[in-house]
TrEMBL record:
Residues 1-23 form the signal peptide. Belongs to the bacterial solute-binding protein 3 family. SUPFAM superfamilies: Periplasmic binding protein-like II. Keywords: Signal. This is ABC-type amino acid transport/signal transduction systems, periplasmic component/domain. Pfam families: SBP_bac_3. PANTHER family: L-CYSTINE-BINDING PROTEIN TCYJ, MEMBRANE-BOUND LYTIC MUREIN TRANSGLYCOSYLASE F. Residues 38-260 form the Solute-binding protein family 3/N-terminal domain. The keyword Signal applies.
Amino acid sequence: MTLVSLRCIGALLLLVWSIAPLAANSVDTPDAAQSKTEIRVAIDAWPPFRILDEEEGYSGIDFDLWARLANELKLDIDYVRCPWVRCLKMMEDGSVDAMSGLALRPDRALYMDYLEPAYYSCSTVFYVRKGRGEIVQDYEDLYRIDVGIVTGSAYFQAFDDDERINKVGVSTEKQLVEMLGRLRLTAIVGTDCQADYEIAQSPYKGQFEKAEYRPGNSVDLYFAISKKSFFHSKKDEFSQALAHILEAGAIEEITHRYLH
């Protein structure tokens, strides 16, 4: 090998070594890709808590609370729209930081931390066509009918875990209302604080009624942070800020805007 060739190889190696640190620094790490002042929040449609309008944008109880929480903590919000089941999966793998409208469930607590306190309380209700309220008089009646559910949702533990009930899963509450309205389901289940609003906004207003059977449970709604999120270490700060906002009467003020 000639002296010229050796010099060329040496120059090439020197160039590679000088570029390598620059290339390494240019690779996006999780902290570099996401600003520590920006929180990624997974959302789906769940009016009046999360109203997703293609023309008017996002509105609803949860969005108003998120805006106040972000202001309190000096954060920017990046909303990530996804189907409910996908949103939960993104919380599990850490591709989003937070969600709201979550019922407390042990399986979810494995990958997310719930912020205290709960910000809203609902009840589980079964809906049927008007005049058929007696078709579900007790829990046992559920074994004799088909019941529409939103896949991945939590209603009450006994029902959620009961594989003997013929449950028909769909992606949204709006689909449930449509299927009951078209007589494609005998009953649907929902949380009254959301389902009552959804039905009232639909073409089927006045055509449904609540079944006689009531589980008598309370479905408390929470904000939560993924355990894989950068913000997980700050969950206590989030809880304190949320508590401060709620103590100031925010939820009463906000809900009045959407429910009255």
